[in-house]
Target: Peptidase S1
Amino acid sequence: MAATTLVIAAPVLAQNFNRPPSFGTLNLSANFAPDPTVVAVTAGGNLPAERLGGSQCVGSIADAPDVRLNYRAGQGLPLYISAVSRADVTLVVNLPNGQWACNDDHAGSTNAGLVFRNPQSGQYDIWIGHYDRGSRVPAQLRISEIAPR
Model:
C-alpha cells in the first residue's frame, strides 16, 4: 500500500461548521456495513481550500461541508476516507479534535484519500474539492475500514 500524505494544521476560522452538509450526514460505528459506504456528491466550489489548512490543502471547495460523518471508532480498525471522480479531486477533512487533514492524488491517482490508522470517535466534516474554481464535478465519497485495492 502506498504512503498517504496526511497534513494536519491548526484550526482556521474559514468555514461555518454549523451549516448543514450539502449531501447528508452519516452515522457509522466500527465494523459498519456496507463497507465501503458511498455517497454521491458534487465536488468543488468557490472557496480556496488552503484557507483551511494552509498550502497543503488544495482545490476549491464549497462553504458548507459536503458530508458530515459521525463515527464511533473501535475494534482497532482503521478508517479510510476517499474521493473518487473522473476529474482531479481533493479532500479536506476537519477532524473531531478540530485539526485539518488534506490530500490530493492518493496512491498515484488523481483521486484523493486519507488513512487514519487510529481514528478518533466524533464528527468529521468532509469537503471534496476540485481545481477549476466555480466548476462542479460529480464524485463519490467512500468511507471504509478495509484497505482500498
Observations:
- The chain has one domain: 25-144.
- The two ends are 9 Å apart (CA to CA).
